[in-house]
Amino acid sequence: MMDVPLLTSMIVKHAVAWHGDVEVVTHRVEGDMHRYTYADAYRRMCRLANALRRLGIRQGERVGTMAWTTYRHFELYFAVGGSGAVIHTVNPRLFHEQIVYIVNHAQDRVMFLDTTWVKMMEKLQDQCPTVERFIILCDSGHMPETTLRNAVCYEDLLDAEDETFDWPRMDEKSAAALCYTSGTTGNPKGVLYTHRAMVLHSMAACSGDHPLGLDSRTVILPAVSMFHVHAWGAPYAAPMCGAKLVLPGPHMHGDNIYRLLEEEKVTLTAGVPTIWLDMLTHMKKTGGRLNHLKIMNIGGSAPPLSMIKAFEEDYGVPVVHAWGMTELSPVGTTGRLRLRHQNLPREERYRVKQTQGRPIFGVEVKIVDDDGNRLPHDGEAVGQMFVRGPWVAAAYFEDEGATRAAFDKDGWFGTGDVASISPDGLVRISDRSKDLIKSGGEWISSIDLENYALAHPGVAEAAAIAIKHPKWEERPLLVVVPRPGAKVTADGIRAVLAEHVAKWWLPDDIVFVEDIPHTATGKISKKDLRARFQDYRWPEAAGFVE
Ligand code: AMP
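A: This is the predicted complex of the input protein with adenosine monophosphate.
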């Protein structure tokens, strides 16, 4: 067979040759709608790749982006990777110290950013000395006044370049992209994706049983940010099969997403439960129907049964539940029903849909006990879930400590999820061993919350746990043992925390107890603490702070 390296440039070359007329539609940061075709996108990718050359970006060097789900970010995905550099998609929701850390760790040489984050980066730029130049994703009419270093307007940059580019033939194992994921404590960890992994992951996404299962008849709206593991791979996979791509930009509220689904006749969408809850509320209020949607993909957190039922029974749209991780590019399992599950009685079918589904081809899964022994797939045994496969990370980017902690002696990656597997192959995640709380798709480190709470002189011991929340899936509850005789209030602790963490990290409730359970080795036993608070209900006022 021919030795053809799997490169992301193959994807767009195919799209322009055979699906050049297919549309990419964006609800822009500027507020209006933008539409063009894969052929238009390709020409601009060539211009951008030429611009990167002119800026002196060499193979393997990192190009940062801080950008919404838009056509310009789509162009960056392919132009940066295809020209040999590495696109580092910075998550702007991280707090400032983390952003500074990852930009420095990645050594981003330039950064492309939406106008949304110009003010923020003006404050942080002095702490990011590797970034030589900031390129603002807008045209000259929208170019803001800015003190950003060597600021350039994106459209001006493209205008100066040629519309053809000779995409280099590289080793398929060279890096195309870089994302960071939150650690349990301390610094975020980088996952460096190869071209090969991206192409294979996209090919999987264009196969029938994959949660996305794209083809040339699909109109896909990824309701996921392109700074969250490549919007689950959709922008790489859609041009591979000529699916129409609908990008929501920063307009991620339920009403905006609903309007796009209807106006653009979207057949498949994917996002975290928080977004879908928002959209369900909107549709209930306005009497909206889903006239075109054929598949509703939900992942990132487990959707509640009521949500699955609402989409299926009230709106006639089948839900496909999926599980994945940054370290898996990200898709690992699929909730597409097998033949034997399709004909089950309704309630049993829902039970299947509540599981995380079965591994897709390319992802091997095992569950093990504390000594690393494999556990049976009997639906009863619960253990740590490990994975391996061609789009699973083999290490963290330049982080030996994190790498040592995450991989077993045979090279399997420990997901930090705790699961059982049923005899018919359904993975059910029942817990998380990593000490993180997932709120609306973003991570909160319980360990960081605890450490900062301990800075309050009246706190003897503190433990943060995730409690289910009707809107944000999970929110932090802080359990505190006060020092004897100390005067300590919830507001006092919150004030201390607020000095260190983003507002949306603050615990929604702080409860005072006499003791916190410990394990035999003296660590706080989160498992026992969670059990103790299993009947806990949020006070009425609990809510998310924007
Ligand atoms: P991230 O790397 O930020 O995408 O987060 C990955 C983690 O999110 C997984 O390890 C799980 O803990 C959680 N997760 C993702 N999808 C699901 C799901 N369908 N059900 C439950 N947890 C999920």
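Residues 181, 229, 299-302, 321, 323-326, 330, 356, 415-417, 429, 432, 438 surround adenosine monophosphate (CB under 6 Å). The first helix runs from residue 8 to 18.
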